[in-house]
């Protein structure tokens, strides 16, 4: 983002610290994979019931895929929750003010946060 400079010149370009996209991408990939697998498994149960008869491998394969997706969902949720904490720290008013050049110079500017960040939507995404 662009922040005002002390000298009154062009604004300084400031970048937030950290890249948290991999945790979000992992979380979304597991979610999309689960949503794609669920109708495929349902279609197999509805339209190919003979493949799920006792003694066949299909029920075990379905159980294995479901367990794997459940484990991946748990891991991706934990990764996203950890990244969310880091995102909150990087975007907190104090963290952002610490990166502004105008606020780093003593005596040139008084920097303070006027409001706190609202992260309730991000908190809901972890649940």
Automatic annotation (TrEMBL):
Keywords on record: Calcium, Cytoplasmic vesicle, Glycoprotein, Membrane, Phosphoprotein, Repeat, Synapse, Synaptosome, Transmembrane, Transmembrane helix, Ubl conjugation
Pfam name, any one: MARVEL
Its job: Possibly involved in structural functions as organizing other membrane components or in targeting the vesicles to the plasma membrane. Involved in the regulation of short-term and long-term synaptic plasticity.
Stated name of the protein: Synaptophysin
Lineage: Eukaryota, Metazoa, Chordata, Craniata, Vertebrata
Listed PROSITE patterns: MARVEL
Gene Ontology annotations for the cellular component aspect, listed alphabetically: neuron projection; presynaptic active zone; synaptic vesicle membrane
Subunit structure: Homohexamer or homotetramer. Interacts with SRCIN1. Interacts with VAMP2; the interaction is inhibited by interaction of VAPM2 with SEPT8.
Chain segments annotated as transmembrane: 26-48, 60-83
Limits of the MARVEL domain: 1-127
Compartments it resides in: Cytoplasmic vesicle, Secretory vesicle, Synaptic vesicle membrane; Synapse, Synaptosome
Protein origin, superkingdom: Eukaryota
Family: Belongs to the synaptophysin/synaptobrevin family.
Topology versus the membrane: Multi-pass membrane protein
């Amino acid at each position: 983002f662009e922040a005002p400079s002390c000298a009154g010149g062009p604004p300084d370009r400031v970048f937030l610290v950290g890249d948290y996209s991999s945790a979000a991408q992992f979380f979304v990939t597991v979610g999309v994979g689960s949503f794609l697998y669920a109708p495929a498994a349902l279609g197999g149960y509805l339209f190919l019931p003979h493949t799920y008869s006792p003694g066949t491998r299909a029920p075990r394969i379905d159980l294995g895929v479901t367990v794997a997706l459940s484990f991946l969902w748990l891991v991706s949720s934990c990764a996203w929750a950890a990244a969310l904490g880091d995102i909150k720290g990087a975007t907190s008013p104090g963290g952002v003010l610490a990166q502004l050049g105008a606020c780093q110079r003593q005596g040139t500017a008084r920097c303070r946060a006027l409001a706190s960040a609202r992260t309730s939507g991000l908190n809901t995404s972890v649940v």
